[in-house]
Structure prediction request, 173 residues.
Amino acid sequence: MSPSEHEHEFVRQGPPHLYVCACGASLWAVQTVLDAAADDARRVAGDEHYTGCRVRQESETVELWLCDAPAGVLRELEAIRPGVYVIHNDAPRPLSTIEEVRKLIDVDEPRREGIEIVSHGPTVDGYLTVGVASDVPTAQAKLDAIFGQGLIRVHEDEPRTALLTTDAFSVRA
Prediction:
């Protein structure tokens, strides 16, 4: 059976960490191939067009978001990994732009105004997501005023706390 004929449903079988599908596909083998395809996509699209991707083991595909990639890039992707990529060439901006904006976020400045930023990072489809401890609408308005509308998506998030100490990672000889 090919990946186009069904979606994998991986179940644990045998030793720990061995997951297989009824068709015989191994989760780890599929993951290895798709990771390489994701790396190839980023290399081929380049910083100018690459936005993000999501590996889909169940369908043996890489869902890929690009920003205005030319037809030549799309043809090259299909040629190197036929049938592997599901391409969305409509992302509003590449990852490189999102990372530039991310570096500009000063978590201390909003805190002085009562907004606690607890997380931030890129989405696969071309946005910067910012997690705040409370008051999402105010945080969204303030960040829109600084960076423009449509770039940042604010959501409520929990403040992070240290759960492990370095002692938890000690190894006995």
Summary: The first strand starts at residue 11 and ends at 12. Confidence is low (pLDDT under 50) at residues 8-13, 18-27, 162-173. Helices lie at 27-49, 71-80, 95-104, 108-112, 136-147. The longest helix spans residues 27-49.
